[in-house]
Amino acid sequence: MLNNTRIGLIGGGNMAEALIKGLLAGGVAAAGLVVAEPVAERRSFLGEHYGVNCTDDNTSLVAGSDVIIMAIKPQVAGTVLQGIGAVATAGKLFISIMAGVKSATIEAAFPGEVRVVRVMPNTPALVLEASSAIAPGAFATSEDIALTRSILELVGKAWIVEEKLMDAVTGLSGSGPAYVLTFIEALSDAGVKNGLPRDTALGLAAQTVFGTAKLLLETREHPAVLRDKVTSPGGTTIAGLHALEQAGFRGTLINAVDAATARSRELGQK
After folding, report:
1. Do residue 94 and residue 186 come from a single domain?
2. Do 22 and 131 share a domain, yes or no?
3. Domain count, the chain
4. Are residues 25 and 81 in the same domain?
């Protein structure tokens, strides 16, 4: 599906790098990829490390690409969209990773019925284990959705959602790695507090999270069912769970997702 498709990425940050790695691993030729990045050092790194073409000219990238992945911060969306409007034709597909920026906002910046698909991957894309959501814009076709999904599945797993749910996706999986990393760090700290060496505690904590997630995904059982299997009457696990409940662990995590979701909505209104 990606053969002979010219792909351009506006923005050369971590997420763009992850997508480049996935595309190359999926058989896309480096010669078919172009990255527009304003920082010269970053252009040099991407060009030397991955063999992709790099430029500082967004307009030429859009003009020469069939698919344009917008991997930029939402705060610069207006400036970038205005700069490429003249070459954004209906024959091109725009895939946006910009948090909070609605497809309608991108469509309105261009003449004609430009095809837009909005996506939200997360940083585990760097190790090809992303959780991504896909939402089609008003003029996107089923072929556009399939092509977008084929790109995202090179760096992990992808789900199709309604665009009105993308802020919730941002709050949950987009920001989620930060919550999980904080949990791992705290779990490791607890191990150190109770006498474990730091490297051992961190390794145990990280592997516990990784293994538990894999167990959940492979068994497809409800988290409560799997939790019950390790919670013996009067045992250590129920004592620990009681402490989590007393501290409002679940409510705090829900509040974190709520706050991140709300911030995503705010970014989309600017």
Report:
1. no
2. yes
3. 2
4. yes
Q: Which of 207, 211, 215 is nearest to 191 (CA)?
A: 207
Nearest CA-CA partner of 121 in 13, 222, 259 = 13
DSSP 124: G
* 78-109 pLDDT tens trace: 899 999 988 888 789 999 998 888 999 999 99
pLDDT at 270: 65
Q: Are 68 and 93 within 8 A, CB to CB?
A: yes
DSSP state of 13: S
- Collapsing DSSP to helix, strand or coil, 193 comes out as helix
In this prediction, the residues of the chain whose per-residue pLDDT falls under 50 are none
CA–CA separation, 134 and 221 (whole Å) = 25
CATH code where residue 154 lies: 3.40.50.720
Q: Tell me, what's the pLDDT at 75?
A: 86
Task: Encode 159-168: b = buried (16+ Cβ within 10 Å), e = exposed.
Answer: eebebeebbb
The CATH number linked to 254 is: 1.10.3730.10
Vertex 218 angle, CA 182 and 144, to 5° = 85
Phi and psi, residue 185, nearest 5°: -60, -45
* pLDDT at site 1: 67
Amino acid 68: pLDDT: 96
For residue 23, the enclosing domain spans 7-169
Quick one: 91 exposed, middle or buried, by C-beta within 10 A (0-12, 13-18, 19+)? exposed
The last residue of one of the domains, among 116, 147, 169, is 169
Give the number of other Cβ atoms within 10 Å of residue 207's Cβ. 11
